[in-house]
Amino acid sequence: MRSLLKFVLPSLLAFTLLTPSVGAAEELVSFKEGAKRMLSGAKKASKLDVTPTDEEKAKIKGMGVNPDATYSFLIGKDEAGAPVAAGIVVDQAGKEGPMRVGVALDPANGKVKEAFVMRFEEERGKPVKEASFLGQFKGKGPSDAITGGKDIDIVSGATHSSKAVAEAVKRAVASYKVLVLDRGTK
Predict the structure, then answer these.
(1) For residues 178 and 52, is the Cβ–Cβ distance under 8 A?
(2) What per-residue confidence (pLDDT) applies to 2?
(3) Which of 3, 40, 60, 82 makes an SS bond possible with 67, Cβ 3.0 to 4.6 Å?
C-alpha cells in the first residue's frame, strides 16, 4: 500500500500541476489598451464615476438591465473640451467565470462604436471573442434591442457566453444613456 501511495501521489501532483485548469482566466486586452481603444481620437481623458439615484436605477431596470451600485465611464475630449469618445468596462458573469467587456460609445448618442472582450474565463465559447461575433454590436444604441438569441446571433455551442456578452453591451448602453446622456453630463 505504501509503495502504491509513493507512486500515485507524485503522479497525481504532477498531473494536477501540468494540466491546464478549466476556465483559466485569459487576459486579452489590458485596461490601458482597452482605454486607448475606447478613447481613440481624444486629446484629453477623464474618468466619470457615477452612483445612480433610485429613479435612475428604475430607468436602467426599465431598459431590461439590472443596475449596478456605481459606474465608471471614460470620457475623451478634443483640445476644445468637446466630447469625442466614451467607454465603459463591464464585468459580466459567464457560465464558468466572470468576463470583462470593453464598450466604446459615441459620446453624442450612446451608440456602440466597438465592443471587445478584455478578459475571458470560459472553457467553451471562445468564438465570442472574435470580430465576426462582436461586430454585431456596432451601431446599437439605447433605443435598440440587444438580446442574445433574439437581436444578436448567438454562437453555436457558446449560447451562454454569447448571451453574457450581449448583456454586458446592453448594460453599457443603458447605463450611459441614463447616467450620462439623460443627466447632460459630458
Answers:
(1) yes
(2) 46
(3) 60
Cα(156)–Cα(136) distance, rounded to whole angstroms? 15
Domain containing 81 equals 23-181
Contact 139, 151 (CB under 8 A): no
Domains identified in the chain, total number: 1
Residue 9 lies in a domain: no
**C-beta of residue 176 within 8 angstroms of C-beta of residue 110:** yes
Answer yes or no: pTM beyond 0.70: yes
Residue-wise burial string across 135-152, b where 16 or more C-beta atoms lie within 10 A, e elsewhere: ebbeebebeeebebeeeb
The per-residue pLDDT for 136 is 96
The model's pLDDT over 123-143, given as tens digits with 9 standing for 90+, comes to 777 889 999 999 999 999 999
Our CA angle for 155, 97, 160, nearest 5°, is 25
What is the rounded distance in angstroms from the CA atom of residue 146 to the CA atom of residue 136? 10
Count of residues in the chain: 186
